[in-house]
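Quick start: what a row looks like.
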Amino acid sequence: MSAWSGLHVYSVFFHPLAQVAPLITVAMVPLICWLNVGLFIIAHDAMHGSLAPGRPKVNRVFGGLALRLYAGFAFDRLRPKHFEHHRSPGSEQDPDFSTGKPGFLRWYGTFFSRYFGVREFTVLFAITVAYLAIGARLANLLFFWALPAILSSVQLFYFGTFLPHRREGDEFADHHRARSNGFSWLASLMSCYHFGYHHEHHLAPQVPWWGLPAERRRRGVEMQERRVESSLG
């Protein structure tokens, strides 16, 4: 959150677009995008109480702050929807799901419209006006705030919803209707803070993002042990 805040203020108010090497400017966009994803993951852990175990007020405060920084979202509005996703994954009651076998763009459009409404647009519009009033450059706002926000929503959706919950190819292992990717630790971290280990998340939603690789290894060992025991009779 500190890294995002510092880079956000610098990029929006102080970064001289025309005076800095283009490579540096372009490189800042994916970094801000990745930090945006991190803000949402913080809020997600707070929803499950794993950001500060046993301290619901701390979870609510920091989760709410992360969501406001991310896109003006309200913690108390998103949390019930996320728990509905966990109760009914891949069903008509799942707010993250688009029924049938939708393509990426159609599903993303449905996903986006369910979370980004008039309230969120109004909040971001008001912030934009305030930023411009105190000296932010419009080009900087578009390049370092709007663009990474959109890209991060696509990143979160692709790795955290579309790939894990799409109805294609192999069947799901259980009622969670979720699968995990086979990424390495580093690729998993860079893609979506290990949120791509999604079946493990549904099996153990109390595990924070940084604990998902260990949870995946633990369950893999247990499964292998059961297979050995089964083969031995």
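That is the whole record. The first helix runs from residue 2 to 14. The chain has a mean pLDDT of 91.
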